[in-house]
Automatic annotation (TrEMBL):
Residues 40-90 form the LysM domain. This is Peptidoglycan-binding LysM. PROSITE patterns: LYSM. It comes from the Bacteria. Gene3D superfamilies: LysM domain (3.10.350.10). Residues 1-35 form the signal peptide. It comes from Rubrobacter xylanophilus (strain DSM 9941 / JCM 11954 / NBRC 16129 / PRD-1). InterPro entries: LysM (IPR018392), LysM_dom_sf (IPR036779). Keywords: Signal. SMART domains: LysM. SUPFAM superfamilies: LysM domain.
Amino acid sequence: MSERKRVERRYRRRRLVALLAVVACALGLAANARAEPETERYTVRPGDTLWSIATERYPPHADPRAVIEEIRRQNGLPGYGIRPGEVLSLPEG
């Protein structure tokens, strides 16, 4: 086999390896981008408030204000009022 053919074959092999590496990276990034955040469904009971949910269902080191804002964001709540029977999506804490 001539030197030129060997060089061409090596060049094609490197291009194939590089292409496969790019495809593998793209698939890995796409899989991570589609991952949904872990959530828990919670049915509001009489007497529940966002504050009580944030302080009772999350660790003591969690800032209740940040938890409340995340609950509001995830559920599209315009205010702070919730009603018994309402089902909320709670972020995993």
